[in-house]
Design a protein that fits this description.
Layout (H helix, E strand, L loop, with lengths): L7 E2 L2 E3 L2 E3 L4 E6 L4 E7 L3 H20 L2 H17 L1 H12 L3 H22 L7 E4 L4 E9 L2 E5 L5 H14 L3 E5 L6 H13 L6 E3 L4 H10 L5 E5 L2 H11 L5 E5 L4 E5 L5 H13 L9 E7 H16 L19 H16 L3 E4 L21 E4 L6 H4 L6 E7 L2 H8 L4 E2 L1 E5 L3 H10 L4 E4 L14 E2 L2 E2 L4 H7 L1 E9 L1
Parallel strand pairs: 1-5, 8-9, 8-11, 9-10, 11-12, 13-14, 13-19, 14-17, 16-17, 19-20
Antiparallel strand pairs: 2-3, 4-5, 6-7, 7-23, 12-22, 15-16, 18-21
Helix pairs in contact: 1-7, 2-4, 2-6, 3-4, 4-5, 9-10
């Protein structure tokens, strides 16, 4: 490649050192369509070396006190925060997201992940029971499991990678992490800070590459007893199959087809801006984004008119422009996939009210080859449509009317996913009632994406297995033992 000298070339991080790879993958800047980075195309050999380094580091790291581990996590958080702008710029360039989103969401949350688990690891308690008649006392103890395999996605790269690394190492495990090959830069940048944070060599190892090569080797490795994965349901099925012979512990955070239910007593001045944000934030590339909006018939026309007007205000363009709301989608292939859903909806008789194929997309000269798409609103779409059943993972949402509470609960639950939902109503009894009946791991009422990391995060049905959060992550990343003492 003639221009290879200008490219950023990443290396795997194994045993506290950066290690070159024999082959590499091109990584694209989604906002320009140009190759700007080369990522290791790791396979079994690199994964084997990383697992060995993690195994070798485990005895010392697992023997450290929670306070000692906590101090390292807090130091790493401080170092990332110190370089927040550099991380945000890199995340925006690598993923296509707006610089504003990277500055205000991705990188601050990555910092918070380390600080949160640095604190929570100091406050867990174990159980104890007595059997006086038997002269026995029972208590539980928890210990780290070993080497954790962590596989994170491309939509919130450092945010979701640290959401796994932080609890794993806080609990005393060592890790081999594989970020998405499409968004590897901030993980590589984080590795540069580990030694300064006081992280012993081998505690955190990062192997870059594709799912079929690096990911599969990690999932199938006999010395990796647990796998935490965030990504597609299809990939999770493959992970389940390949890990089954080893009886590995799995945490799977998967896709969603999240409904918003808007009752006729909703405060539309709050609901509409929040639902536009929940539909199009991060280009709609968040597993929690709203992609089905059910609006009670009495306010349907008014909602639709105001919602479309609000969606049209969102500016699509160069992610480095702080006034831009919608950046580039992750890849050319993903953009085409999302566009195909809009075409299918039109072929089925649905109406596209704004966005793709309806409104002109004006881009700066340097972004003409980027992977951009306007926020797109579809109406008059049937519940059976693929646009109402399948995860699109782009800036596309469908708006449909409903009549009764019973009806909308049935329709909202009528998909294979069950990750998140939002309910908009001023009726306290109704929001409690509907929340209990929705088949979703998370239900927000009159808000969206308000998170308390102490509480469980995860989905039902095809949206995943297990939960993440202070208590749930602690339980996943530790083995529990019941000890009985007769006196």
């Amino acid at each position: 490649m003639a221009h290879s000298k200008a490219l950023l070339v990443l290396e795997n991080f194994i045993g506290g050192k950066f290690v070159p790879c024999s082959s590499y993958i091109d990584s694209y800047n989604p906002s320009t369509g140009d190759v700007y980075c080369r990522v290791p195309d790791s396979g079994k050999e690199e994964v084997e070396a990383a697992v060995k380094a993690a195994k070798d580091a485990f005895p010392v790291w697992s023997s450290k006190s929670p306070l000692e581990r906590s101090q390292v996590l807090n130091k790493l958080a401080d170092l990332i925060e110190h370089d927040l702008e550099a991380f945000a710029q890199a995340e925006s360039k690598d993923q296509g997201k707006t610089i504003t989103f990277a500055r205000t969401v991705d990188i601050p949350r990555a910092v918070h992940n380390f600080r949160f688990f640095a604190s929570s690891i100091l406050h867990h308690v174990t159980e104890c029971t007595e059997m006086p008649a038997m002269g026995c006392v029972h208590y539980t103890s928890r210990a780290p499991v070993g080497v954790a395999g962590l596989i994170s996605p491309w939509n919130l790269p450092l945010y979701l990678l640290t959401w796994k690394i932080a609890p794993a190492i806080a609990c005393g495990n060592t890790v081999v992490a594989k970020p998405s090959e499409m968004t590897s830069v901030t993980a590589w940048m984080m590795c540069k800070l580990l030694e300064k944070a006081g992280m012993p060599p081998g505690v955190v190892n990062v192997v870059f590459g594709t799912g079929p090569r690096a990911g599969e080797a990690l999932v199938c490795h006999p010395d990796v007893p647990l796998i935490s994965f965030t990504g597609s349901t299809r990939t999770a099925q493959r992970i389940t199959e390949r890990s089954a012979p080893h009886c590995k512990r799995l945490s799977l955070e998967l896709g969603g087809k999240n409904p918003a239910i808007v009752f006729d007593d909703a405060d539309l001045s709050q609901c509409i801006p929040a639902t536009v944000r929940s539909s199009f934030a991060n280009q709609g590339e968040i597993c929690l984004c709203t992609s089905r909006i059910f609006v009670q018939r009495g306010i349907y026309s008014e909602f639709l008119k105001r919602f479309v007007a609000e969606a049209k205000k969102w500016k699509t363009g160069n992610p480095s422009d702080p006034t831009v709301d919608v950046g580039a989608l992750i890849s050319k292939e993903h953009l085409e996939k999302v566009r195909t859903y809009v075409k299918k909806a039109q072929a089925e008789g649905a109406r596209v009210l704004c966005g793709e194929g309806v409104d002109p997309l004006a881009l700066p000269p340097g972004n003409q080859k980027g992977y951009f798409m306007l926020p797109t609103v579809i109406a008059e779409v049937k519940d059976e449509s693929c646009c109402m059943q399948e995860e699109i993972f782009g800036p596309v949402t469908c708006v449909v009317p409903f009549d009764t509470e019973e009806e909308v609960i049935r329709r909202a639950n009528g998909v294979k996913y069950g990750l998140a939902a939002t309910v908009w109503s001023g009726h306290v009894g109704r929001v409690h009632r509907v929340a209990h009946r929705l088949q979703s791991g998370l239900v927000w009422t009159n808000c969206w994406l308000v998170r308390d990391l102490n509480l469980p995060f995860g989905g039902m049905k095809a949206s995943g297995i297990g939960r993440e959060g202070a208590k749930d992550s602690y339980e996943f990343f530790t083995e529990v033992k019941t000890i009985t003492i007769k006196h």
